[in-house]
Amino acid sequence: MIACGALTGHVREIAARRAWPVEVHSLPAVLHNRPARIAPAARQLALQLRARGLRVALAYADCGSYGALDELGDELGIQRLRGLHCYDVFGGQDRIEAMLEADPGTYLLTDFLVRSFRRSVLAELGLDRYPELWPDYFGHYRRLAWLAQSRDAALEQAAADIAELFGLPLTIIDTGTSGLERELERLVGQGALADEPLTDEPPTGGAPRIDGAPRIDGAPT
Predict the structure, then answer these.
(1) What does the alpha-carbon distance between residue 101 and residue 92 come to, in Å, rounded to a whole number?
(2) pLDDT in tens, 58-71
(3) Residue 122 Ramachandran class (φ > 0 left, ψ -120 to 50 alpha, else beta)
């Protein structure tokens, strides 16, 4: 399983708990800041794993690749998580789509982003060095929504600190990881990672609780 670094911890926990015979290989989450690099990196790793006789699946949604991961899937006969981004995986495509349609100025967070915001967003975008660019990146947002996989006091404080940076209200939506687990189960259950000999040719074909009221650019999904 090739996993986005933002999902790797959850993928490993789920695979271990479900006793799936799966190797989890992580790609850096910061690739999401340059999503054109995701598919080439995934392809290189997938070919290395296939050379070992392993089946491969992608613990990625589209993630801003604009179909490049689907093209990779068609090329190598591998599958990915359904959805445009990990927000869809955690929160459900219909709910996230409706949320963003109702208020396009919603900035979404996951536990990973809450933990790593200063490193994976501020530092990667250069905002720690050039804070005057903040309005260019984030001036159009009107609220924050944290899709929480597992809350604790430290994460809640970190999320509140991010909301304070934005000067915007924070909504906490408890999603857990059940959506991700269902998607991983689909990949494993459909034989994407079945222990079968590989041929030289790839195969052909191929409700959360909301607390309070009130998308992310350049950060992991």
Answers:
(1) 14
(2) 999 999 999 999 99
(3) alpha
Backbone angles phi, psi at 188, to 5 degrees: -70, -45
pLDDT tens sequence across 19-59: 999 999 999 998 988 899 999 999 999 999 999 999 999 99
pLDDT band at residue 215 under the 50/70/90 scheme? very low
The residues spanned by each domain of the chain are: 2-85+178-189, 88-176
**Is the separation of the CB atoms in 72 and 43 below 8 Å?**
yes
| Residue 198: Cβ within 10 Å count | 15
**Architecture of the domain made up of 88-176:** 3-Layer(aba) Sandwich (3.40)
Taking alpha carbons only, the member of 30, 199, 176 closest to residue 110 is 176
Whether the Cβ atoms of residue 65 and residue 37 lie closer than 8 Å to each other: no
CA quadruple 48, 49, 54, 59: dihedral sign: negative
Question: Over 70: is that where the pLDDT of 183 sits?
Answer: yes
